Amino acid sequence: MTIHEQVRIGRYGINRRRFLHTVSAASLAAGTLSFRDMVSLQAEELKKQNRSMVLLWLSGGPSQLEMFDPKPESKNTGETKAIQTSVTGIEIAHRWQETAKVMNDLTLIRSMTNKEGNHRRASYQLHTGYAPSGSVKHPSLAANIAYRLADPEVKIPSVVSVGNTTGAGYLGVDYEPFIVNDPGNLPTNTVPTVSGDRFDKRLGLLGQIDSRYAERGAASLVKSHQQLYSKTRNMITSPDLKAFDFSEEPEAMKNAYGNNKFGQGCLLARRLIEAGTTFVEVTLGGWDTHTEVFSRTDKLISQVDPAFATLVTDLKTRGLLETTTVLLMGEFGRTPKINPRGGRDHFPRVFNLALAGGGVRGGQVIGSSSEDGQEVKDRPVTVPDLFCSLCHTLELDPKSETMSPLGRPMKIVEEGEVVQELFA
């Protein structure tokens, strides 16, 4: 096989254009390039190309005390108890029975801290790395990752979201999330109702109409429209589209994830990552628990706990966890003090999250909060720190830039440092 042919290894491949670009860059730097050097570069490119991420988004701001930072000795805890995990000395809230069993593969950060206490602003920031700005629509982390890592040879979407999420911003339609509302079934309107030839003829006619429209001053709009139709055509004709269909998935596996939208969304995430998708987000709303925090979180956790634990185990069993970063989080935490309505209010000062995969060392806790939960006690971790660390798991430079429509180079994240303890 020559370097003029497409290089493929296993299920995932390095496309010819990307491989030649890498080889050319190295040749210029070194002057010469041996066959062994080419193979080494090929392996390194393949390693990076396989990187992917799953974000399990708990929309509304989950209570850290009802998640991974319980304080049974504090008067603020209420009904929440602590249970021992599979790692001696690490305790989490009692509702997370299945998650406790996979603690060896997880890292908990109990010292996340931020200033944004508004749902919209905090959600935007935790998805993009930037606070909302009227001057620019920032791309999501998902779009930034896909822009840099997605394999152009994979025909299914590079970014998929079970539920709505932040879009691609100025990176454009190629990196907008493909929204799935019914995980387990093929997306609607993905089975052509006419023959392949007739379908192509219809697309050709559409292209002619678009061309006339472009000549009248709508070239930019037409370009996006044609990109969207091209992506759609590639997807519905790809054999990997079957990743969306659970009809051949064992019932035991579907049950393990949970017979609900969030659980089945997590199963879809595993199937899509296996098929070559770069970023999958699965959302579960309802965490804005200003009232009845204990009963409401009990119902929500009953969906998230088995799905999260099964996803981590499933990815690990299939050899995908080392290259797939899994993040479970929401936009902020809740007040340690219970309000008169039996709930907890917005609290960005201290919150927590769980990470697995992507080279993260499991079985540990980073940072802590004070005994009353009101302050970060040690090792504060900011949103920029988190984004830098996520980029590290994906082997990306968080300071790499794209050009915004205003002509300003924009980094994935402007500030922050990698939380080295994640990988120690």
General description of the model:
It contains ten helices and 18 strands. It is an alpha/beta fold and 424 residues long. The protein folds into three domains: 49 residues, no CATH class; 313 residues, Alkaline Phosphatase, subunit A; 44 residues. It has an eight-stranded mixed beta sheet with strand order 8-7-9-3-10-13-6-14, with helices on both faces. Strands 1-2 form a two-stranded antiparallel ribbon. Helix 8 packs parallel to helix 9. The longest helix is centred in the middle third of the chain and has 41 residues. It starts with 6 loop residues before the first strand and ends in a 13-residue tail after the last strand.
In brief, what are we looking at here?
With 424 residues, the protein is of the alpha/beta class. It is built from 10 helices and 18 strands. The protein starts with 6 loop residues before the first strand and ends in a 13-residue tail after the last strand.
